[in-house]
Amino acid sequence: MPLDHRLTPEHEELRRTVEEFAHEVIAPKIGDLYERHEFPYEIVREMGRMGLFGLPFPEEYGGMGGDYLALGIALEELARVDSSVAITLEAAVSLGAMPVYRFGTEEQRRTWLPRLCSGELLGAFGLTEPEGGSDAGGTRTTAVRDGDEWVINGSKCFITNAGTDITGLVTVTAVTGRGADGRPQISSVIVPSGTPGFTVAPAYSKVGWNASDTRELSFDGVRVPAANLLGEEGRGYAQFLRILDEGRIAISALATGLAQGCVDESVKYAKERHAFGRPIGANQAIQFKIADMEMRAHMARVGWRDAASRLVAGEPFKREAAVAKLYSSTVAVDNAREATQIHGGYGFMNEYPVARMWRDSKILEIGEGTSEVQRMLIARELGL
C-alpha cells in the first residue's frame, strides 16, 4: 500500500507555527550570532517553550506526544532559515534525548527526559573519536567497572551540544570488555556534565554551523555510577546503529530545508535584482536553474517523509533512511552552489542567507554517516 505523505491538519499547523517562528524570531537575529560564533541561547529557550525539544516523546515524560514526522517537519522549517539552530534541535532530540528514551531504564527516563524535552537541558552523543571517523566500531574509549562505578578514559570529537551552559549529559560509547572471540564489547554510559575528569575543549573553529556548539571531549578517570549504563552491557554499538538510522531521517529533513531555503532566497532575489533593464528572473537561464532547485528540494522532501512514515508505521526503514540522507545532502550542496551563483557577488557576502547556506551545506554530506557510508548501506540492503 502506498504511503500518504500529505500532512495531517495537526502536522500542517505545526509546520506553519515553526515557519512563522523561523522567519519572525530566528531570521532577524541569526546572521549576527553566526558571524560572532555565538550560541543562540534565547532562541533555544523559546524553542523549548514551544515544545520543539519534546516533539517525538510521550507526554508522560514531558514530551508533546508527537512522532518522528513531526520532528522532521520542524527541522525542515528551521533549516529553511538557518541550519545552526536546526542542528541544535536535531542533535538534542535524535542523539541526546532519544537514546535515553529508547534504551534507558524507567528511572533514567524520569530523571532526564522531562528536562531534555523542555529544553532546560541539552543532551549530546559521544560516538566519534579522533582516530575513528566513519569507523565508529573502532572505539578506543574504555569504561572499566570498579565496584559500583564505571571508570571512563578516552576522548571524543565533533560532538554537537557538548559544551553549552545548558548541556546536561553526554552519552558515551566505550569498550567495557571483550567477547569470547576477543572482539571489543561496546556499551553506552551516561556522563553528566560537570563530572570530575570530564573535560570539554574550547569550541571548534568551523567552516559552517557557526552558531551551533561543537567540541572535543576528554575523559580522564571519570567515575559515574554503575546505574548510568544505558541499555544492555555490550549492546551500545547496536543501539546506536538504530539511533543513527533514525537520525539520518532527521538530517535528511534538515538538508531538505536548506535546499528549499536556497529556492526561497533565489526566487526572492531573481524578482528584485535587475540587469540589462529587467529582473534576472525573466531570463530563462535563471528560471531553469531555480526550477531544477525546486525539483530537487521536492524530491528530497518525498524521500525523508517516506522514510519517516515507515518508521512511524513500524515498518523497516533503514534503506529508505540511507537513500533520503544521501539524496537530500547531495541536493542541499547542489542548491546552495546554484543559489550562490544566482546571487553573483552578493552570494559571497555574509549578509545574504545563501552565503550561510553554502557554508553549512557541505557538512551534510559528512555528518551522521558520509555519503560513501550511505551508499554502502544501500548496497548492503540490496543484498550486495
Describe this structure in words.
Residues 124-222 form the Acyl-CoA oxidase/dehydrogenase middle domain. Helix 1 packs across helix 3 (68-79), helix 6 packs antiparallel against helix 7 (284-312) and helix 6 (236-272) packs parallel to helix 8 (318-343). The protein has 384 residues and is an alpha+beta fold. It has 10 helices and 10 strands. The protein is 51% helix and 17% strand. Strand 9 and strand 10 form a beta hairpin. The strands form 3 sheets. The protein has a 4-stranded mixed β-sheet. Strands 2-3-7-6 form a 4-stranded antiparallel β-sheet, with helices on one face. A two-stranded antiparallel ribbon has the order 9-10. It folds into 3 domains: 9-122, Acyl-CoA dehydrogenase/oxidase, N-terminal domain (Butyryl-Coa Dehydrogenase, subunit A, domain 1); 124-233, Butyryl-CoA Dehydrogenase, subunit A, domain 2 (Beta Barrel); 238-381, Butyryl-CoA Dehydrogenase, subunit A, domain 3, CATH 1.20.140.10.
